[in-house]
Write a structure and sequence with these properties.
Elements lengths: L2 H14 L17 H13 L9 E3 L3 H6 L11 H18 L12 E6 L6 H13 L5 E6 L6 H5 L9 H6 L5 H4 L1 E3 L4 E4 L8 H5 L2 H12 L4 E6 L7 H6 L5 E7 L5 H10 L6 E6 L16
Parallel strand pairs: 1-4, 2-6, 2-7, 3-5, 3-6, 7-8
Antiparallel strand pairs: 4-5
Length: 296
């Protein structure tokens, strides 16, 4: 069977299965437009593989998280809750669009980083994911993209021995659903860092990472992905990951991080399409906060 006949047969199968064709009405004759048929098949084949449901579930100790000052489901209104509400609104508009704006490319992929360790990046990543999971129409995947420290994994009380992101990028036989963990928090799942790797930077820049991020980005209308990455000035991994994100949040600790340090970090990610800064632990009154100061 020739290429044209194979293409015609495949399109007929797809049409019977209910797959929308890129033309309206009756498909063109195969003998007249073989290039159109081949192009249509190529577009269909290029679509990212759909995401499956996680095959494992973990129970997160919500009482322990709340005791550590974190946002948890059912918590009463607080300063942290209101500040996170103000923070997530522009992120949601960028990711999903609104009546006035189209969503940005890969806007559902949101990476949090910092210039230096200890600026509150992991705390904000975790709590932003919690706040986004309170939105009724979207699922949230929190990714521990720091295989050296695994700070999010530790704070959630999940064993560091679990397979995760690095294992997924190393082993093509592993699917995201094999290592993604559903949780007892509605609409929130978690991807651990997995086993450390000296070639983490190369893995983040690999075709495997690109394919994974493409699948996650294609799910943008129903899934938001938060990446807790290493600090920019201490690890090259964050610099490899950032250009592949739709949105990057640079966390800056007020009163500690020097202006020049922040400038250097921003220079490293200047190629990223959308970079925003978050001033953490500031005592300056915030117009958006009814409590009068930022509380991240």
């Amino acid at each position: 069977m020739g290429i044209i006949e194979q293409a015609s047969k495949r399109l007929e199968q797809l049409s019977r299965a209910g797959v929308a064709m890129p033309w309206s009405g009756k498909p063109p004759e195969t003998s007249a437009q073989p290039s159109a048929l081949a192009g249509s098949l190529q577009q269909i084949a290029a679509r990212p593989q759909p995401l499956e449901e996680p095959r494992q579930t973990v129970q997160i100790d919500l009482a322990a998280l709340a005791a550590g000052g974190n946002l948890v489901p059912g918590a009463p209104r607080s300063r942290l809750m209101d500040e996170l509400r103000a923070l997530k609104r522009p992120l949601l508009v960028n990711a999903l669009g609104d009546r006035a704006r189209e969503p940005v490319a890969r806007g559902n992929l949101i990476m949090l980083t910092s210039s230096l360790p200890g600026e509150g990046k992991t705390f904000l990543s975790l709590n932003l994911a919690m706040s986004l999971a309170m939105e009724p129409h979207y699922r949230v995947l929190l990714v521990d993209a720091d295989s050296t420290r695994r700070a999010v994994t530790e704070r959630l009380g999940i064993g560091s021995e679990r397979a995760g992101l690095m294992d997924l990028l190393r082993d093509p036989s592993i699917d995201l659903a094999d290592v993604e963990l559903a949780t007892n928090i509605e609409r929130l799942s978690f991807l651990p860092a997995g086993a450390g790797d000296a070639l983490a930077t190369e893995l983040f820049a690999s075709r495997e990472a690109g394919a994974l991020l493409e699948r996650l980005a294609a799910d943008g209308q129903r899934r938001l992905v938060i990446f807790d990455s290493p600090p920019l000035l201490h690890a090259a991994e964050a610099r490899a990951l950032a250009p592949q994100m739709g949105q990057v949040l640079l966390v800056v600790q007020a009163g500690r991080t020097q202006r020049g340090t922040v400038g250097h970090a921003l220079d490293l990610i200047e190629e990223c399409p959308l970079v925003m800064t978050v001033l953490n632990q500031a005592r300056t009154p915030a117009p958006s906060s009814p409590y009068g100061y930022y509380a991240y």
